[in-house]
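Why Hydrolase? Reviewers of the renewal asked for a concrete example.
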Amino acid sequence: MVSAKLVFIDIDGTLADEHHRVPESAQTACRQAQRNGHKLFICTGRSLPKIERSILDLGFDGVVSCAGAQANVGDKVLFEHLVPAEAIDAAMAYFRKHHIETYQWQGADGMYISEGYLRHLQNGHTAWGSDEFAKYWHMIDDVEIPEGSTLGQVLKTSKGSYFTGPDPDVTFEDVKRDMSPWFELVHGSYDKISPNNGELLINGVDKGSAVRDVAAALGYDITDTIAIGDSDNDTAMLKAAGTSVAMGNATHGIEQFCDIVTTDIHDDGLANAFVTLGLV
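Here is what the prediction returned.
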């Protein structure tokens, strides 16, 4: 049996499949690993309100949300970082200039969305339109902005995300360069529907910084941390952890720098990783 580990697990494409279902094998492996003395943290780009109750009820020891900007252990907030007001305002101006209509800002109190993102929810092809999440969606156009203030000064959010239409006038690399004074841009999870989509992360705050900060707060050496993910937005935590695992369905070439490559999520990928790591 290996010594106690602190394990960080991405949700989409790692813990849960494209239908937001967690394989039974993954659920069993997580419970067994915890019984063996290991602590398991969700580490996701989603905000806490955007995580299904069915996933939270699996009993993880903690949650890192908003791509590393917030961490919770039960009702205790270990840390929370907010997007600076000027950064939100700069991004909104950029969205208007380049006709990017589908975007959201996520934080502890919910998701603030554009009219374009509302249409995405209403098209019926996403689980986010379900009643479970309805109370957490807020229309940006409905936000009251006091005279003399800006939207950025009103919103309390920890990350942004967007995706463009089929023929954008800017590429992902253009947005990454143009937004770099305010944000670190990583690929989002909308590759199947948009040629240019990304997550706007606070500069210096990501899943990697969260791995280091949570480990320090809980008294773990970084060598005793493990990160498991499947996409570009997991890169920072995979590189920060003592041991990195790429899912068999990994994208954007992350498997090239990971220590271990497990099987596909549809082939018991998480459970097989736990066996390889000696967690179960």
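The CA atoms of residues 68 and 209 lie 7 Å apart. This is the kind of structural detail the renewal will allow us to pursue systematically.
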